[in-house]
Amino acid sequence: MTITNPAQLIDEFKKSGEFDRLRRELLSHFQRSDRTEAFKSRVDDIARQRLSSDPKLISMPNDAVQRELLGEIDRYPIVERAVADAPSLSDPAFIAGIRASLERTLSAGRGEKSYGTPSQSTPNVHSSDSANPDPNPAVSQSNGTLPPSPAAQKE
């Protein structure tokens, strides 16, 4: 398939398995981080508050209680905050690996030769030192987009 627009690039990236690999790796990293306990504690607090404020929930079927509690938890931006605080997403090496994987997917979609599989050069997610932020962040443009890759700048 020839990739001619961003939606096709996303579809091909997902078909390659790289998207799922990155998703699983980011989740695993979060589960091993020290932020997990605070996240779980906040979810627990929200659920307990909802249960204590509505005694009729106790007599409802389990699936109805679960729906109610999930709806209550969704009202709070705790997942969005956890994602925003993920140090891996601002790690220049991680972003460079994603860029390389996307470029390989794009090249393959154009029928160009690709060397290696998408995950071969995508770095593993690792913790960055949040006390010492990178002085040259990967997202440096004022509009929040990634700067062009060196290969794109040569074109």
Descriptive labels:
disordered C terminus; single chain; 155 residues; mainly alpha
Backbone CA Rg: 21 Å
First-last Cα distance: 23 Å
Quaternary assembly: single chain
The H/E string reads HHHHHHH
Label the overall shape: elongated
- How much helix, percentage-wise, in residues? 55-70%
> How many extended strands?
0
Largest sheet: none
Instruction: State the secondary-structure class.
Output: mainly alpha
Runs with pLDDT <50, length 5+? 117-155
Roughly what fraction of the amino acids lie in strands? Answer: under 5%
Total number of helices: 7
Structure report:
By secondary structure, the chain is mostly helical. Helices cover 56% and strands 0% of the residues. The protein is built from 7 helices and no strands. The longest helix has 19 residues. It is elongated. The protein starts with 5 loop residues before the first helix and ends with a helix. 8% of the residues are buried.
Describe the structure concisely.
With 155 residues, the protein is mostly helical.
Q: How does the SSE layout of this entry go?
A:
Layout lengths: L5 H10 L2 H15 L2 H19 L8 H13 L3 H7 L7 H18 L40 H5 L1
